[in-house]
């Protein structure tokens, strides 16, 4: 049986799938891991975890399906991350993760002063935020000069796997467009003046598109993984974009909504020659996964991480909490939560935001708190969607993906709060499946490329309850006002947490 292998390195786990030519998942494997938080606002991971878990998953899947012919390998991973490695590809420090790591505030302020906010946005598409990988490279240069002096190459999880498998030093355009301010989004290339200013000692990765073949599995990689030498490996990209591929949400006017440890949204805009790329300072403008596309993207810093925190705190399991949250009902019996427990990314771009629970009484229960957490993430999604639309995004279709889609209540709350219809595909395993699809597409003969809607048709539609529209309009207004009313005190507390 001919298959493609897809592996995605996520924030809390690495997932792998073997997928047959018709899109059927014939085997899967998962390895759980944790991030490291050495200081408030720092989120890191040892890159050895990425490779070790890839090897373990590949070995398991190959052993589970010994008759499978692995025709190509797809790779994917969280991002944008900053992994700097020396000339022998040894990491010089742990990888700095995406926008949940907020350490680069001083570098962002300096770059804004030196380059100008308008010019940064014009060249790179986005304002500098905690998501900007270029600012994190500058942080290493400023704060860990010995590590930076040893650094020669820049990787993210997908490109690190491609390097270890093939020896190719590549980065896809989508990931590169999040190394702000080092990438020129309109011309789809590294922006040489700013690369030389802020990353001059780092060799520039060769830029390719996510689904292009980076190289072939080497003999050394074949020995440890069990994947045959010579197997093509794609370049891959950041997991949210691979998730969008996995459900077909990469056409113009599609919005992918990813339910995971964090929540992520990707709106796809096809850009014709001479057409203006959508920009707004509070969101991220990026290159798409495919040539000729741009994305307006946003992300919540906590979603599944918040519900997991409540589960651990209350020593209850998810079925209990979901049943109690459903019984609590809309509005959580008068509770309103801000989900900013790890700062917030879009649209407020406030790394010093913190979680707030308003309206608590002695009568409230853990089910009320869990309901308030679900509604908080839904209100955060609505805030992002309304910001995208204000920037000109013509959102016509919402496709949901990710582990959180297994919980019907969460999706229903999001639809009710946002007023959005969500389409849920048959397979929601996410980025590993999208990586396998990209790999199958990369090796397909002309006219024989797989079609994602054949692989993964829509299986369910979640409709908002129109009777709740006015209620949630009022709650959303309170949500926005609560942040503005509490942020000064919260910022003082965040400063105290850093001391």
Automatic annotation (TrEMBL):
Residues 4-241 form the Carbohydrate kinase FGGY N-terminal domain. Keywords: Carbohydrate metabolism, Kinase, Transferase, Xylose metabolism. InterPro entries: ATPase_NBD, Carb_kinase_FGGY, Carb_kinase_FGGY_CS, FGGY_C, FGGY_Carb_Kinase, FGGY_N. Belongs to the FGGY kinase family. The keyword Transmembrane does not apply. GO terms for biological process: D-xylose metabolic process. This is Sugar kinase. GO terms for molecular function: kinase activity; phosphotransferase activity, alcohol group as acceptor. It comes from Microbacterium tenebrionis. Gene3D superfamilies: 3.30.420.40. Residues 256-442 form the Carbohydrate kinase FGGY C-terminal domain. The keyword Metal-binding does not apply.
């Amino acid at each position: 049986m001919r298959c493609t292998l897809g592996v995605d390195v996520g924030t809390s786990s690495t997932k792998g799938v073997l997928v047959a030519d018709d899109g059927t998942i014939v085997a899967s494997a998962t390895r759980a891991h944790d991030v490291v938080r050495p200081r408030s606002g720092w989120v890191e991971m040892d890159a050895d975890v990425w490779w070790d878990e890839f090897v373990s998953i590949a070995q398991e899947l190959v052993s589970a399906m010994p008759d499978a012919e692995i025709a190509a390998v797809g790779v994917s991973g969280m991002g944008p991350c900053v992994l700097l490695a020396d000339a022998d590809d040894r990491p010089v420090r742990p990888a700095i993760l995406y926008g949940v790591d907020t350490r680069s505030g001083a570098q962002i302020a300096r770059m804004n002063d030196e380059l100008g906010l308008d010019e940064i946005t014009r060249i790179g598409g986005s304002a500098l935020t905690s998501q900007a990988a270029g600012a994190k490279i500058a942080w290493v240069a400023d704060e860990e000069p010995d590590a930076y002096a040893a650094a020669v190459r820049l990787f993210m999880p997908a490109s690190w796997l491609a390097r270890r498998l093939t020896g190719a030093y590549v980065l896809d355009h989508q990931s590169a467009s999040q190394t702000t301010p080092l990438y020129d989004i309109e011309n789809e290339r590294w922006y040489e003046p700013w690369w030389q200013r802020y990353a001059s000692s780092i060799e520039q990765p060769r830029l390719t598109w996510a689904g292009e073949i980076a190289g072939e599995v080497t003999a050394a990689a074949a020995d440890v993984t069990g994947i045959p030498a010579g197997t093509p490996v794609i370049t891959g990209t950041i997991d949210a974009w691979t998730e969008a591929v996995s459900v077909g949400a990469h056409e113009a006017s599609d919005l992918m909504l990813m339910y995971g440890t964090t929540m992520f949204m990707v709106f796809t805009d096809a850009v014709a020659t001479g057409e203006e790329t959508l920009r707004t300072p509070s969101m991220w403008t990026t290159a798409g996964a495919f040539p000729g596309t741009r994305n307006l993207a946003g992300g919540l810093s906590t979603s599944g991480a918040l519900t997991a925190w409540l589960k651990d705190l209350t020593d209850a399991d998810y079925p209990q909490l979901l049943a109690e949250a459903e019984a609590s009902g809309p509005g959580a019996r008068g509770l309103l939560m801000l989900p900013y427990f790890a700062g917030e990314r879009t649209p407020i771009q406030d790394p010093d935001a913190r979680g707030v629970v308003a309206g608590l009484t002695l009568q409230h229960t853990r089910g009320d708190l869990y309901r308030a957490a679900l509604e908080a993430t839904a209100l955060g999604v609505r805030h992002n969607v309304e910001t995208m639309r204000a920037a000109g995004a013509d959102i016509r279709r919402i496709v949901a993906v990710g582990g959180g889609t297994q919980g019907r209540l969460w999706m229903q709350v999001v639809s009710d709060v946002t007023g959005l219809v969500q389409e849920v595909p048959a397979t929601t395993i996410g980025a590993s499946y999208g990586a396998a699809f990209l790999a199958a597409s990369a090796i397909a003969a002309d006219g024989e490329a797989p079609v994602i809607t054949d692989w993964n048709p829509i299986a369910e539609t979640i409709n908002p309850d129109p009777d709740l529209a006015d209620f949630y309009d009022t709650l959303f207004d309170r949500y926005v006002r609560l942040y503005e009313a509490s942020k000064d005190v919260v910022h003082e507390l965040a400063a105290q947490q850093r001391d």
